[in-house]
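re: the backbone from monday

yeah here it is again, tokenized this time
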């Protein structure tokens, strides 16, 4: 039992770090390390318990299908890079084993990693506008993300106004985090919840495109509209139309 508890704890940390590095450093190698560790922990859990607590035949068939496609590369008419990418991507299916087998709370890990991502995106975005607030190491952070194609500089048009921006590649992840915050609060409107919601919307506005921001706002609107009373729904509709006219 002691070993089982240790494996469970290690799996919790491993999943959090996997989420974190997948968000802040998507194409770089750290996430691959924690992905491999999660599979190792799953294997150790299997050895300890002697069986998996989830069905395994369907994912194995799915992986086998792409493995056959990958093996057909020497025969020609098969793109090796594409087939390798598809085959390796199917290995992510084994993460479902870990989630179910160890009964991990994915939402908690996603939230913690997502809020850290929001902080980094906010720090880099505010640092980009150095004339507003000169943050230490912000320029080095921006250069690092641009060098590794994790962010890029661009412009956004608001009518005749053109503003520079630092686009963060992982910003769309914050859409999921924003939705989780609203759903878990059941649409409750209080100071703390609204502060978090407006904070995330602000980060998305600073680090994402107009389309991403509109998607984030529309998602928030629909979720609050679902939980709101009739009178408040009418107010939300008017506010959404106003913002749509303002941005587009």
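seq for it, each position gets an aa:
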């Amino acid at each position: 039992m002691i070993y089982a508890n240790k494996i469970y704890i290690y799996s919790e940390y491993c999943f959090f770090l996997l989420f974190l590095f997948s968000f802040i450093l998507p194409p770089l190698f750290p996430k691959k390390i924690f992905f491999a560790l999660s599979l190792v922990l799953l294997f150790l859990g299997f050895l300890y318990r002697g069986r998996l607590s989830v069905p395994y035949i369907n994912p194995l068939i799915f992986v086998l299908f792409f493995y056959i496609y990958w093996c057909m590369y020497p025969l020609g008419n098969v793109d090796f890079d594409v087939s390798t990418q598809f085959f390796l991507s199917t290995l992510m299916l084994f993460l479902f084993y870990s989630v179910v087998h160890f009964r991990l709370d994915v939402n908690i890990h996603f939230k913690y990693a997502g809020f850290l991502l929001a902080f980094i995106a906010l720090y880099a975005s505010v640092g980009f506008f150095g004339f507003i607030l000169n943050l230490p190491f912000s320029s080095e952070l921006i250069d690092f993300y641009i060098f590794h194609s994790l962010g890029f500089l661009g412009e956004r048009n608001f009518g005749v106004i053109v503003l520079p921006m630092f686009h963060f590649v992982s910003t769309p992840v914050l859409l999921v985090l924003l939705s989780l915050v609203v759903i878990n609060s059941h649409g409750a409107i209080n100071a703390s919840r609204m502060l978090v919601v407006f904070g995330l919307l602000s980060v998305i506005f600073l680090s994402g495109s107009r389309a991403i921001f509109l998607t984030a706002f529309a998602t928030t609107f629909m979720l609050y509209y679902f939980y709101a009373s009739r009178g408040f729904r009418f107010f939300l509709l008017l506010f959404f139309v106003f913002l749509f006219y303002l941005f587009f």
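The longest strand covers residues 151-158. The chain has eleven helices and two strands.
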